[in-house]
Amino acid sequence: MFAVFCLVLTAHLLLVSCFIFKVPLPLFDRVPALQYYKSYAALGPFFTEKSVSWTYLMEVSHKTGQWSPWYSPQLDSHQKYLNRMDYQQLKRAEFEKLLAWYALAADEDPEIREYLLDYLKVNLPQDHKTDSVRITITRRMGNYPVVRIDSLGMYQYALQ
Amino acid sequence: MIWWDKKSIEKYRDAFFRSTYDNRIEIFFKGWYAFVLVKLALLGPLFNDLMQFHQLIGGSSIAGARMLIIFVMLLGIMLKRNYFLSILMFVVTLWAHRIIHPVVNGGDLVVLFFMFLGIFCNTRPEFSEGSSLGLFQTALSNFSILMGKVQVTLIYLVSGWDKLTSQSWRDGSSLFNLLRVDYYPANWVGYLTQDISLNALVVISWLVILFELWFPLMLWFPKWRYSVLATGVIFHLLIGIGLSLPDFALVMIWCYLLFLDARH
């Protein structure tokens, strides 16, 4: 019995090492029970850049009177929420900040980024809307991430 | 001395089957029940927002569920733990997580993890202690406690490693962003850090990274354990007060109970 427990512990530590060093283990991304195991075995990391950006989104949308399930990284919740959100209520600066932080979060999730860009093509607030818009997101030290929206022919997403 | 020689392995094995039922474990898990209870009770001001969120994703009313969960947690605190109660508490905590999902933080995930571990961790023998089942129960319970300790150390190690491999943590910009999100820093921290230099941010970021990598390793040396735990308490109090995350701080500090000697 002792040997079995030792084996279980060793296997667990080996798996956690694989998760930490991002060794591809597709089964753990596909089977729901194993997904849970993966997320709780390598619990944390906390205070990642992504989690900070989620929090900022929650904060901005909460301040504007709209609760944001963006805090949870689930795309279906994002879509439902995006469809309901009235960007007209946001001041331009707030909108730009929101976009910048959202882009930081989306940077790690291509699915969210794609959805966001498609969404913006049709739902940009009136004062930002032109026939063609370019969005450039610049991340820099000493300031908030800055988003620039220009009329330059196409949507372009870039993190510099 | 080599820790994996025959004598040492026998020592570990004997310890593994030695009965360690004591009040410390009972208090440890009841602490989690109390935490869930207090958190749900204190979420009152946010509840309208949470209900709005649930309506948005097609959920039903959650006010009744909240009261029920608070009641069950109260019951858990008052009754003596056994397998049935531990499973019930885990399921109910899972339910609570679904309700507070939009405001769940890392601390809540740790609580859920320990609620699961609690299913296998007994505070009194359910079977005759000399029997095979009794022996298995003791071993499983001891193993769960060991897993709890391993996971606590892994939390730091995984966080430290993630920060070490993140460019924005190494150059201080993550910390900069963290301090600029109104949601996190307390007013006085925001005031103190509004003109903080980049160099200071880099130093603080590296101190955090080094702490998160150093702490889980030193925790396993009995000689250093108490001073390391004291450093951990200070670290979490600073996060708890400075970043307005008292619940996360409480959860992590409560986890340290696992590392205390029963005599203390």
Features:
heterodimer, A: 160 residues, mainly alpha, 2 domains, two-stranded antiparallel ribbon, elongated, B: 264 residues, 13 helices
- How many helices of chain B? 13
How many domains is the backbone of chain A divided into? 2
Distance between the termini of chain A: 55 Å
Specify the structural class of chain B.
mainly alpha
Largest interface (CB within 8 Å) is between: A-B, 41 and 54 residues
Can you give me a brief rundown of this structure?
With 160 residues, chain A is mainly alpha-helical. Chain A is 55% helix and 6% strand.
Summarize the structure in words.
The complex is a heterodimer of chains A (160) and B (264). Chain A has 160 residues and is mostly helical. Chain A contains 7 helices and 2 strands. Chain A has 2 domains: 2-41, no CATH class; 49-127, no CATH class. Helix content of chain A is 55%, strand content 6%. Chain A has a two-stranded antiparallel ribbon. In chain A, 26% of the residues are buried. The model of chain A is unreliable at 61-90 and 125-160 (pLDDT under 50). By secondary structure, chain B is mostly helical. Chain B has one domain (8-259). Chain B is 72% helix and 0% strand. The mean pLDDT of chain B is 82. In chain B, helix 12 (222-242) packs antiparallel against helix 13 (246-255).
